[in-house]
Amino acid sequence: MASSSCPTDEEEKDFGLSKATFGRVEARTSCDHLGSLSPDLIKNPPPHSPCNSCYYPTENWLCLSCNQVLCGRYVNKHMLHHFEDTNHSVVLSFNDLSVWCFSCDAYLDAQLIPQLRPVHQLAYILKFGEPPPLLPNHLPSAN
């Protein structure tokens, strides 16, 4: 058995995967579903908040429309059910601070989308105790 954590060619065949399915995920820099964002995103709960439904302590997501904290699809799928019930599309992962849009079925770049930047920065500060590093295109110019 291979010691690598990557699947072998044979394992890929077993799962119906191809090498083209592995690699870097490109986050979107725009989304048509940002109109449903809560106007009060700066009052989001801390990143260690448990799921409001099952109280699972990790792998939770913050709904950016109503500030509900619910567990992800690999736990009890409460955030997925919330989307299906409410059509609240845009959520932030407390695990890695990524932002996902269920309607787009894609990650969103929270540092490049102006409407998402404040909630991402606040979550980062609450999780790590310091502001996130600036991207090169957000650094002040030396003029």
UniProtKB/TrEMBL annotation:
<keyword id="KW-0862">Zinc</keyword>
<dbReference type="GO" id="GO:0008270">
    <property type="term" value="F:zinc ion binding"/>
</dbReference>
<dbReference type="InterPro" id="IPR013083">
    <property type="entry name" value="Znf_RING/FYVE/PHD"/>
</dbReference>
<dbReference type="InterPro" id="IPR001607">
    <property type="entry name" value="Znf_UBP"/>
</dbReference>
<dbReference type="Pfam" id="PF02148">
    <property type="entry name" value="zf-UBP"/>
</dbReference>
<keyword id="KW-0863">Zinc-finger</keyword>
<feature type="domain" description="UBP-type">
    <location>
        <begin position="29"/>
        <end position="130"/>
    </location>
</feature>
<protein>
    <recommendedName>
        <fullName>UBP-type domain-containing protein</fullName>
    </recommendedName>
</protein>
<keyword id="KW-0479">Metal-binding</keyword>
